[in-house]
Each structure stands twice: as structure tokens, then as C-alpha cells.
Amino acid sequence: MTTKILVSQPRPKVERSPYFDLEKKYGIEMVFRPFIKVEPMTPKDFRQQRVSILDHTAIVFTSRHAIDHFFNLCKGLRVNVPDSMKYFCVSELVAHYISKYVQYRKRKVFVSPTGHVEGLVPLMQKHKDEKYFVPQSSVHNDDMKNMLDEAGLTHTEAVMYYTVSNDFGKDEKLDYNMLVFFSPEGIRTLLKDFPNFEQGDVAIACLGQKTIKEAEDHGLRVDLQPTEELRSVPAMIEAYIKGRG
Description:
Oligomer: single chain
Shape: elongated
Radius of gyration: 20 Å
Number of strands: 10
Low-confidence stretches: none
Distance between the termini: 13 Å
């Protein structure tokens, strides 16, 4: 019987992907199905938060989703983001994505040296006179707010897009040997759509400490997570396949 692995994110758009290489190498079936989806917020809903974007001098971006929805919502609100606006980004990947909407200038784009929010805060403190605006998902915690409060920075958080469950259809089966999760919301969607789910021999791989904690808090066994040897999801999948062999 073919090994089936469910990866809870969209199918890669590029032809060459480590996931596809694993399919060919081991003859497995890789199914890509997001457990959550992101939806835009309307200008009307945003206005109800009574936040003025132009009262701020810097934007903090933690994801490409945040960038897309920030600029699209600004367009809907008829807010012209000034050229003087600065951008503080959690990673190089996120920073370069800004060029999709504005001319990329290194002098106004700042990147966390660690690739994490924690590494971004000291950089923001060097620009302590800025007024920071943080676009967020409807599903968020107060970690960012608390860190910026502790750092003594002037900041405002506002929801600019919705993260919702991408529910399974009534006829969809969960007949997989391995499930791969990238967020706590993915775990919650699994248990909402399959309330009688019993893990048994099904392997679960999780990316991120919050995802791991969410799984374990619900009594699930996390079989694979990032380590020094397994730095990526494809590496975890390959380790699982070799372990079965």
C-alpha cells in the first residue's frame, strides 16, 4: 500500500521541490491541503477599529500575508502610504516581498538578524522615536504587543485579515500515514472536523513550538519536529519514510 502523507499547506508552485523529489525517490503520495485559509478584511470592518495608519512612521511585518493584506487594504481605504514610511521585517524573505508593492530601498527596510520577532525588537529600539504599526491576523496572541511594551516603544496593533478554518467536506477521509502541521490553528481544525480522531499509528510532524504545544495539549503524539539533523519538513518526512522501511 502506498504511503500517503498530508502536508497542511498549499501545493508548491515551483516544479522543482524537495517534496516532489521525495515522491519520486520513495514512491509515496504527497497530498497538499491547507487546514486554514486567509481571507481579506473589508475597509468597513477595519475602520471600526478606529486606527489611523498614517499616524505611524513604521510598519512591522511578520509575514507575506501581512504585507499583501496591508497594502490591499490601504488601497481600499484610499490611504496613500508615504515614501518616508519605514518597514521592519521578521526575515529577509518577508523584506524582499515588500518590493511587490513599493520600491525596495535598504535605507528604509530593516530585517531581524535572527529571522525571529525577538531579534527584531532590539533593532526597533535603535529607532525608538518611530511610531510602529503592526498588522495582525484575526488569530493572534499578545506576544508582539507585550515585547514592544517592555521595550518602551510606541506602537499600535490592528487586525487586517482573517485566519479561518479550511474545513474538510463531509465525504473527505483522513486516510493518511502521516500528517504535517505548521500552525496551532491547523491542529484545532483537525480536531474540529474529526472530533473522534484517534492517532494510533498515524505519525504527526509539527513545525514550531506553539504548534507542538497545541498538539501535545490535545493529547496528540508529536513524532517528528525540527532538530539539528532535521532542519526542514522534507527532512522530517524522509526520516519518517526511512524509519518505516
